[in-house]
Amino acid sequence: DFVVEEIPLYDFSDQGNFALLLLEKINLSTLDLVALIRKQLDLRDEEVGLAGWKDKRAITSQWVSVPREKASESRLAQLAGDGIKILQIRHHTNKLRTGHLLGNRFTILIRQADAEAENRAQAIIQQLQTLGLPNFYGPQRFGAAGDNSEKGLALLLGQYRLRSVRKRKLLVSSYNSLLFNLTLKERMEKDLFAKLLQGDIAKKHDTGGIFLVSDPKKEQQRADRLEISATGPIWGKKMKRAGNEAAALEEKILSSQGLTPDVFRKQPGSRRFLRIALKEVNVCQEKEGLRLEFFLPKGSYATVLLDEIMKA
Question: Is the pTM of the predicted complex or chain greater than 0.90?
Answer without folding.
Answer: yes
